[in-house]
Amino acid sequence: MLSIASLALFLGTVAAAPAAVPSKPAATPDYNNLTVAIVRAEPVNWPMPIMNTNWTGRQFDLNATVTKGIRLIEEAASNGANLVVFPELWFPGYPQGMADRSSMGPWLSNYIENSLTLNSSHWTALVKAATDNNVYLSPAFSHREDGNIYMAQALIHPDGSTFVRHKLRPSGGERTLFSDGTTDDLKVIATPYGRWGILECWEHFHPSMTFNVQAQVETLHIAAWPYTPDAGDPLAQPFETLESNLAAARVYAISANSPVVFASVGNVRFLDAQGVDLAVVEAAVSTVEQPLAYHSFNTTGLAETEPYAPNDEQAWGTLQQIVQSFPAYIPRVKGSFVAKKLNPIAEMLAGEGH
User: What is the mean pLDDT of the chain?
Assistant: First the structure.
C-alpha cells in the first residue's frame, strides 16, 4: 500500500512523507506491476544544501550510511516498493567538489577506509535488507577491491543473488581517483518484471557505454547520478546542471525505448520511454520530509521481451555500418584513452604522504 506522500507524487503534487512502519512485502509479488522507490536523501555527513562543497569538519561514514540506507529500504518496502534505487556513490557518499585525487587530499584515507567491500558486514547487511524486505535493490557505492577503488553499481535480487558492475571510465577528475571498469560489465539483467540495464552519470553521454547496453533491449533503465540541483541553479557548474544531465537521460530513454529511473541526491525523476516526466520531486523539496520518490508502472509481459533486436538502431548491423563507414582519413590509431587505467590505493596514499 502506497503512502499518502507516494499517492500525491503520482498525482503530480508533493507532500511530506509520514513516518513509515517497515513491514515485509507480500512473499509473492505481482510481476505485472512494478513500484520503484528512488532515493533522493543525502548520505550521512554529506554537506547540504545540494551545491554545498564545504567538507570542513566532516568525515565519510560507511557504517552510519549503511544504517540510513537500510532504513530507507525498509520505508520503501513498507510503502509497496519492489525496487529501490540509490544515487551514484551513495555509499559512503559522492565527494562533491573534490572528486579528484589532488582535491581529496586530507579526506583520501578516510574515503578509502569507508569504501565498501563485497562480503563485508556492510555488504551482507544490504543483501539482507533486500531479502528481508523482498525487494530488488540497486545500491551505488565506492567499491574497494584488489587494491583499487571503483565507482560501482549493483543489482541485488530478493533471493540474495547479485550483479556488480564498475563504471567503465570515470569522468573527468574522477579518473585520477577511481579505477576503470571493463566492458564485461555492460550487461542487461533479466528479472520477472522485465530486462533491466544499469549505468551511472556521464556514461549516458557516451556510445561506448550506452550502445552495448541498449543493444540488449531494456524494459527499464536504472540511471544513477550523484546529485542534481534544480533548473537554473546559479551555483551549478555546467557539468552539474539539471539541464545537461536530464537531457542525457531523456535521450537515453528515447534511444533505448525504455523508461528511465533518474536517481540522485536532490532532483529525481521517472521518465517514460519517450523521455517524458511521469514523476518528479525537485531538489527544493526537503530530503528529510521526503527522502524517497515513487512511481508504479505496468510490466505485464515484459519478462518475455526478446534480448536483442536485429532491426533496431542499436544492433549488430548498425554497429557494422558505423565501423565500415568510419571516415577513411582518420588514422586507425587506438590511442591510450581506452586502455584500462588503474589508480592503486597504495600509490595514491603514498603520494599524499600516508
Answer: 93
